[in-house]
Specification:
Layout (H helix, E strand, L loop, with lengths): L3 H8 L6 E12 L2 E10 L18 E16 L2 E14 L4 E4 L13 H11 L5 H8 L3 H10 L22
Length: 171
């Protein structure tokens, strides 16, 4: 029997606040058989991200949780789906809520950063976008979005101080 720690190491989960719970189950979602792992993400926040008030006394309290799904790379033939119970917090100073954060995904995204890096690696090879999306169990538009995220944005939104214009001379 593997421990939660060893499974985290195998999957490359470096977040110490994420604890795997229970056994893995196999579940078919949209005709794809996923290996589903359950996890809990919780910690004691040091400050509120909205008002920056410190956690002095009972300013920030736990306020329930929300279930999110995170897509991971494959292990064998089955893709891995991490079902995470994320802790919600309530700040009494600004009266706003926020969720526990993890380094596995970007904010508001359910595709892990490892999957995005793997997609970028596949984009460097001679593969179609449709094949890459099929291999990573994501949509073609997700692959396009990952491709666009690698672009360097050096666009200037203003005219330069000096504008050189050549006027043709007529003969």
């Amino acid at each position: 029997m593997f421990s939660s720690n060893s499974i985290s190491n195998i999957l490359g989960i470096g977040d110490k606040n994420l604890v795997l719970t229970g056994k893995e189950i196999f579940e078919t979602i949209k005709s794809v058989k996923y290996c589903v792992l359950n996890a809990i993400l919780t910690y004691e926040p040091s400050h509120c991200p909205h008002c920056n008030s410190n956690k002095e006394g009972h300013n920030i309290v736990k306020n329930g949780s929300q279930m999110v799904k995170i897509i991971f790379n494959r292990a064998g033939n089955n893709p891995i789906l991490l079902r995470v119970k994320k802790q919600r917090f309530y700040c009494k100073s600004c009266k706003k809520t926020f969720m526990a954060k993890t380094s596995l995904t970007s904010k508001g995204c359910f595709i892990s950063n490892d999957v995005k890096r793997s997609i970028i690696g596949d984009l460097c090879e001679f593969k179609s976008i449709k094949l890459i999306s099929k291999e990573h169990y994501v949509s073609s538009s997700t692959v396009n979005r990952v491709l666009r995220s690698t672009e360097v944005t050096n666009r200037k939104h203003h005219l330069p101080e000096v504008l050189g214009i050549d006027v043709p001379t007529g003969h």
